[in-house]
Every structure is written in C-alpha cells, then in structure tokens.
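Subject: Interface between my chains keeps coming out wrong

I've been trying for a while to get a sensible model of this assembly. When I model each chain on its own everything looks fine, but I need the whole thing in one frame so I can look at the contacts. Pasting all components below, labels as-is. Any help appreciated, I'm running out of ideas.
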Amino acid sequence: MQKSNTYDAIVIGAGMSGGWSAKELCERGLKTLQIERGKDVKHIKDYPTTNLNPWEFKHRGDISKEVQDANPSISRCYAFKEDNQHFFVKDTEHPYIQDEPFDWIRGYQVGGKSLMWARQTQRWSDFDFQGPERDGFAVDWPIRYKDLDTWYSYVEKFAGISGNRDGVDTVPDGEFLPAWELNCVEKYFQSSVKKNFENRHVIYGRCAHVTEQQEIHKQQGRGQCQNRTECERGCPFGGYFNANSTTIPWAAKTGNLTLRPDAVVHSIIYDDKQNKATGIRVIDAHTLETTEYFAKIIFINAGAINTNLVLLNSKSERYPDGLGNDSGTLGKYVAFHNYRARISATCEDFSDRKTTGKRPTSAYIPRFRNVYKQETEFLRGYAAGFSANRWGGRSNEGIGKELRDNLFAEAKLGPWRVGSHMMGETIPKESNYVSLDKEKVDKWGMPLLHISVKYDDNDEKMIKDFHEQLTDMYERAGFVDIQLSDDHRVPGLDIHEMGGVRMGRDPKTSVLNEWHQIHSCKNVFITDGACMTSTSTQNPSLTYMAMSARAAHYAADALDKGLLM
Amino acid sequence: MKRRSAIRNISAIAAGIALFPGCSDGLKLSYEDGRELTFDDNQQVWIEAISEAILPKKDLTLTTFESFPEFVTKMISFSKSSEDQTRFVNGYNKCTEDIKTIYKTAADQVTPEQIVSYFEDQLKEDVIAAEKLDEDIIIDNTEKKMFCKNLRELAIKHLTTSKEYQEQIKEYKLVPGSGTFNACVEV
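Reply #2:
Try treating it as a single job with all components included. I did that and got this:
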C-alpha cells in the first residue's frame, strides 16, 4: 500500500499558490500528488454559467432569501451571486466557530479562490518587507525584495500581468503586458495628485489579464481578455489567470502530476525516528475513508486558515501542539486587510466626455503614509483603489405609459462619479489567532476551528486618516459632494487573511525560515497566506505565486543535493 | 441604437403574445422547505391585468424564462421570507378587492387607467400619520403598499432582464471583444 501511495512530493491545495507549487515541482521532474478537498473544476468544461446571458439566469442574478439567511458570511461577499455561487463554500456546509465575528470566504475546489479573485497584482517592495523591523511589530521578515524580484518576473511572464512601468518605488515595476487606458477623469486625478502631493501617486491597477497574447499563453491555450468583466464565473478564453487554466494543466502536461480532488487532509504524518514528515492522512470527502500518502517533501497550500488547521491538527510526540510549533506561535499573529472605509464624490468637469465598453480594472493609489518615516500616530498605512465612472441611466419613475416611456428613453448620462476604497495594513498580534476546538468536529472528523480576529485602535485611526487624506486629495482635485463611509464590515470579507505560520529569522519566534520550511521539520514548506509575517497593503496573490515558485525550486534543488532525504 | 428604432425593432418581432396561458391547477411553486405560493387562473388574470396596466408590454415579444405571473411567483417565493410572502399575498387579495369595490367591476373589465390610478394612490407617501390609524388599517395599508411596490419592481425587472431589452436598449454583449474599451470619447 505504502509503495503505491508514495510520491516525490505532495502539494496540499490546488488554488492560487498550490497550483504554482505543483507546476514547479512537476516541471522539475518530481512525481507530485496534489490534494484538493473540493471537487475538480476543469477549465471551461466546469464553468457552467460562463456563457449565459443575463436573461438566461433563472433568478436574474439574485440569491435566494433562504440561502442568504443560512449563509450570512458569504452573502456579504461582493462576488457571491447567482452566476458563481457554486464556487463558494456555504457557511452551513463547513462550519467554524467565530469567537470574534469573522466572515470566512472560501472556495473548496480545484482552482480554489483563484477562480473568483479580484486579479489585482501589485508587487511588494522593501518598504513592505522591512516594515516589521523598522516599526517594531511582529518579527523581521527573513527575506527582502531582492529575494523575490526575479521570481515576481518569473510568475508575471507566465501568468500574464497587465500594467504600466510607473517607476514608483513602493510598487516596483514588473514584466507587463499592455495596460488599458485610464479614463480622462482618472488621468486628471493622477496629474492633480502629482501636482499637489509629494510622494503620492495614482497608477493603473496592474491585473492578471492577458491583454496581448504571448507565445507562452498560446502554449497554455489561453487567449486575450475579451473585456467581458464576468471573470468570477471562470473565463472561457482564459483571459485572466486562474490555476484551472494555467498552472494545473501545465503541471499535468509534464506527466508528473496526480490530482486527487475530494480529499480532505486530516494531518501531516511525522516520524519521530527520522525527524521528518513522511506523508499525510487524507479523508475521502464522500466515503470518509482514510488513506495515507507518502512523499519526500510536502507543500501546504491549503489557504491561510486551513493551512493553520492542518498543522495544528498534526500532533505527535515531538509536536504535541501542532507540527512545527516549537515557538508556540502557530495559529497566532493572524492578520488581514482593513477594507472598511470608502469615499465617493462627483467630478463636475469633463461633461463632454465619456467612456464606452468595459475594463476589468481601474486605478490604484499605492501606500503613501509612513513610507519613508513614521509620520502618524498609527503604524503603517493603506493603499486605495480609484475609479471614475459615468453611468448612462434611465429613470424608472412613474407608472403605466410614463414608466414604459422612461424605460425606453435614451439613456441620460449622469455626472462623473469617483470613488476609492481603503486597503489598510493590519498589525499581526498574538491576540488575533485561530485554534482547534477540543471536542467539536466536522463531518470529516476534523476539529472545528475557532477564529478570534478583530480590529484594534490602530485600524480605527487609520480609517480616520484615510478619510481625511483622501478628502484632501479629492478636494484639491475639485471634486464635490464628497461622501465618506465606514461599512463596519467584520474581518474576513477582504478575503486576504494571512499569517499564523509566520516566517522569521528566529525559530523561537516564528515557524518558517527564509525558504518557507518549518524550522525544525525542513521537508515541510508553507507558501500560501499562512506564511505571511506581515500583510502590507497590496493584494497578496502575486506574492504567494512568487514565493511558491521560489520555494519549490529551492526544494527541488535541496532534494537534488540530498539535503531533504 | 436610437430609442425609437429600438422600440420599433422589438415591436416588429411579433404583434403581441399571450403572456399568461391559463393553468387550471393554478400556478404553484413548491420549495424544499415546504413554502408554496399559488395563484389560480382568476388571480393570474388579475396579475396580468395589473402588470399590463402598470407597465404596458403586450405589444412586445420578450424572451424570458417565464410568463410574468410565473416570474412573480418564483421571485416572491425565492427572495422573500415566509412572513413577507404572506404579506404579499394578503396585499394582493386586498388590492384586488379594493379595485373591485372602488370600480365595481371584474378583473377582465377593469381598465388600465383605473389600475394605474389605484397604484398611484398606493405608492404615494402616507398622508395620515400612522398613530392616528387603527392597527388593522395600518397592517392593511402596509400589505397593500408592499404588494404594489413589489409588483411594480418585478414588472420592471421582468422587462429589463429580457433578451430584447438587454440587447436592443442596453446594448448588452456577452463578448464585447478586446479593444472595445474606449477610455475617453466625446459625448
């Protein structure tokens, strides 16, 4: 049994980062087993709504009251609609315990959340990697930008990232495909900010869309983005990056990949005599039968919180509190992005201009607070989106003939509306943690996870500052009717949960080293959001991709050198 | 596409259709949790008449999943709580009784103008402070207003999500194509 279940490598999870781990390991010639707890989703074939028109949706895009009531967390997610509800984990099917309110948005399937992600891809810089050391929180990252630079380039070329070379030091330039144009109001705001503020920038929001098909995309079978903006259904053109269209088929093409969906990982098997992990225990999602698989190296890419769950549940004589938990930090220092604050306004100029067509991105304001020095009462800072739109609308006032005439009238262009949302860094704290329930288990026998994560005073101060600073930027641009809001969303809805298995230089205060290996169990690698020492402000997926590729190559090299046998 | 040609094109597809075929068993949708909404033939005639009055569309061919009464039944069952479904049905009953009483006529004889007039009254803001009314009247008014408001919204949704409206009025394309975004054009 052991022989037939033995591989060179195991990758747990088939989403954003797991896809990259599997691709790189397979390309390096390692027979790789990729485990996914959810169903298989084949590119195009398993995108059931991708070619449906609005009138072909039974409920015109709505989600039933019954589903909303039963699943309040996912119902609060902007992307959860009739057209892609099949890609979201229902709260009720996979319960967890909210010690503090937390909307956990999950995608249990091959492709994971890479199917429904927002596709924003800004690089980190050294201002981000140096943050904890400079500002005295969390622990120092064991890597710097130079360690990831070439890996960012590597994944960008393969994934297809649209962007401009902006020359902004907080978000380094990368390997970009052509960008969509910013519209006239976005360009105006860009120049207004440049004129009025030192070290503040408005740039194009770099995104994982193929805007000009390269040879590598042809080989992947992916075409150019067709401006549908229906991305979260899965794209039949492969116009945006997801694991289903890109990394997993590429890994499969090597002949080295065995993909095993519908398999829930229970724990990592640790051998006290060999002082290393030897395999994993897996529960069949349907039959509940347990199987063990074995490999020389194991990558855990289960999604930040589930990676914590697997490690916490991997107890042995050597690791009574979870695999690799010598420091006692496993499950702790979980952080996320603060998306609570918004600002909107009207731009009264450019009334003779409009846009036509659709574009799957907008503008981006990189972090400008506390970048070069500490300048506020709160730590760190925030990035922000920026978009300007001019909608053509029809009145739905009236009744009878008047209503019909209104609905069929020529659309009237409203004024330009502008808006920004905050993407704030939260500070990892020991008091923000996940842990296992001692008694309650789910259908698969896995302990239920407690999540205890909340905002703090730093986040509140940051929201106030975002409102003040963005108001200033908007006013100087001459925008009027400025509206501020704080939607008081609970953590989780940003879908950027990170940490719990943090990287660090010191095994006494961290779980992973600079190569994403567990300090004391070096054949286990974690390259998803769980590894993050701090969160900075950028959407994190691009960084997970680069980290996964880098770590996978290191692991393959180490195996070649006999270091992980 | 200009408004008039869009309307003309929609109208030209067919000279009108019977949107609401009779259904002797009534129109019923059942859900797994036991919820049910039922409209019999007579009620469907009323809904058809009301719908046509508040948003005339008999002369249009609309490609939708279902007739308007079916759409109403489905969406109310789907998107409202059991309590709100009950209020909607009560509102329906009270409104149709009101119309019959006020205009002393049956469903197939009430004129669109009469229905529009009734709906306009129902959709107006309350002019009498709630505390001056009996509790029963407040409930009656709430249910009637809810029915009128919901039915009007659904009539709009049923029309505006049809294939013809989406393609000809909203100029919707599932695949716009690369290069179709223009960042700045003259109005």
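Reply #3:
Confirming on my end. Chain B touches chain A through 52 residues (CB under 8 Å).
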